[in-house]
Amino acid sequence: MFAIAVLMPLTVAAESVCYGSTWNGRLESGVKLPSKSDNFVSYSALAETLGRTYVHSEVREIMLVSYKWLESELPGRVFKYAETGFEDGGSFQPHKTHQNGLSVDYMVPVVNEEGRSVHLPTHLLNKFGYSIEFDARGRYQEFEIDFEALAGHVVSLHKAAKERGGESLASDIRSRVTALSVKHQVW
User: How far separated are the first and last CA of the chain, in Å rounded?
Assistant: First the structure.
């Protein structure tokens, strides 16, 4: 029994600590996001290798709870996260933010011409998805934004944040989404 306990790896990670703001900060004990699961993937294996998929430990948990909720509420839909930050935070080019572990970029969920949920292609030639521009109807090549899945993703993040971080974190997400929807006339 003792030999087994000694040989087992220690899996308890320290909780992350963020300092400063998203545009002028740093991160202590950042955690790497998983590359993929049943309903989500990272935007780039290369970016993962370069250490560009680290977040605050609580952000990771919120994301994973959100994806788990989406798996049951929107079965068959797939999602993709993108840039987050470095393990220790700090300057994260080309972004002005993403410095303290609290920023996550998501690629919009899309459907193909058959209406099947698919991952938006992200590779070097389209700047890992950042150079893609959808038209006014939410279309790009053979892809169309899945607005139902997008709304479900926002709701799931809000619910997970409220569960894990209380009302202040959920309120912050709600205000950022409202500002974004007004800016881009989503509603």
Answer: 59
Res 181 pLDDT > 60: no
Contacts of 65 (CB under 8 A, 6+ apart): 156, 160, 163, 164
- 34: preceding bond cis by omega (within 30 degrees): no
Q: What is the pTM (predicted TM-score) of this model?
A: 0.82
Distance (Å) of CA 70 to CA 28, 99, 144, 152, 162: 29, 27, 19, 7, 16
Longest dimension (CA), the chain: 64
Q: Round the average pLDDT of the chain to a whole number and report it.
A: 86
Q: Where are the alpha helices (DSSP H) in the chain?
A: 2-7, 45-49, 57-73, 147-184
Checking DSSP bridges between strand 139-140 and strand 79-81, what pairing results, if any? unpaired
Q: What is the pLDDT of residues 66-93, one digit of tens each?
A: 999 999 999 999 999 999 999 999 999 9
Residue type (1 letter), 80:
K
